[in-house]
Write a structure and sequence with these properties.
mainly alpha
Length: 142
Amino acid sequence: MVNPTMPTDPIEPPYAATSSAMHWVAAEVWDHLWPWSHHGFQRQRAVQAASMALGLAASVVWVLAAMGQMEAGALIGWWFGWSAFEVVVRLGSKPYVKDGPWWGRRYRVANTMDMICYVGFKNLLIGATLFIGLKSLGLLTP
């Protein structure tokens, strides 16, 4: 039975149809790390501009953490705040998620919960990797 609240409309990002595996992998990495798109800027200029500023601020916080100038709690708070705002950004810029296994090339239109789960899990993995790396190097204060 099809759930009426779940979008099933397929969508194809610009890079999905490439035949080059190297180009596809590079585009996937870029897609995960860069939430903005030209289309998003055309539709939501104020939100996209604010998100660029917040994204830059979150990056500065990670740099401060790498320099030993940031406490762990503040870093986690900043990362959580960025993640919440990224959901809004992605819904306006790249409103799709993968449908099926991570190595597949099927995408579908995302609803809000899809995007919360996608951004939350992606940023949890990125944040945990950076956090553990900084902590193991002794650069993050408790």
